Amino acid sequence: MPSWLIVILCTAAAVGLFVVGMSLTLLFKGHHIDSEISTNKNMQRLGIKCAVQETREADGTADCRPGHDDLPAGCSGSCGSCDIGHKK
Fold first, then answer.
1. Distance of alpha carbon 46 from the chain centroid
2. Secondary structure (3-state) at 44
3. Are residues 16 and 24 in contact, defined by beta-carbon separation less than 8 angstroms?
4. If you count DSSP H runs as helices and E runs as strands, how many of each does the chain have, helices first?
5. pTM value?
6. CB 73 within 8 A of CB 65
């Protein structure tokens, strides 16, 4: 059996295992895995923050209330609602 065929079969098996694992998670838990820091309650409870929010807190731009011309409207300082390219 050629080596390229072995690589393709191993890749297909790995993707298949991933799909089965995600499907079982969906079946048993009843919902998709919430890996977004801004919406995951357990991550927020543990105090985990994304790199964008930590950077903004460090340089003092984390308070992005609507109404400021230099800050995006509706930005709460979390990854889900702010753009990454924001600069003061």
1. 16
2. helix
3. no
4. 3, 0
5. 0.42
6. no
